[in-house]
């Protein structure tokens, strides 16, 4: 059972970190540039409501077609689950980062122009510190969504984590299955709580 817990945590953190690496820069650029925001917003609003269960078959087919190796570093079920988590974690972080950046005090941005700060310095010294609260609100929301998505993804992708454990116990149908599933549900909820507290401490 401990192995399943570790697998699930590693999978969700992998998908979440990939999403954060993509979403934060996109959110910053969108927040600073109205044209970029207008271009990307329709895509966000189109893909944000898509269920992870709809993404999963697409991701499974792509991974199966592209990830072909005699000695793979990662199992296909792990990649499928992690990429599905990534796709569902992107949108809250992009949206909240964009809102946080676009609501920065204009005086601060004017100061950066007066001081002739470079784009990178401007982002590091002014944009990031000013938008951190909204950014972390998006990250916390993304991690919570990613954790929920992961359990469903593991059930279907058969990644050996908590989702697969719950599914296997359901299929098993023994007299102890209900008790084991309830323990797994409590553990899933508790781990979700710990992940959220971890993000709050990091903030």
List the helices and strands and how they pair.
Blueprint: H1 2-32, H2 34-47, H3 52-66, H4 76-102, H5 106-114, H6 119-157, H7 162-172, H8 177-202
Helix pairs in contact: 1-2, 1-4, 1-6, 1-7, 3-4, 3-6, 4-6, 6-7, 6-8, 7-8
Structure characterization notes:
By secondary structure, this protein is mainly alpha-helical. It is built from eight helices and no strands. The longest helix is centred in the last third of the chain and has 39 residues. It starts with a helix and ends with a helix.
Quick structural overview:
The chain has 203 residues and is mostly helical. The chain is built from eight helices and no strands. It starts with a helix and ends with a helix.
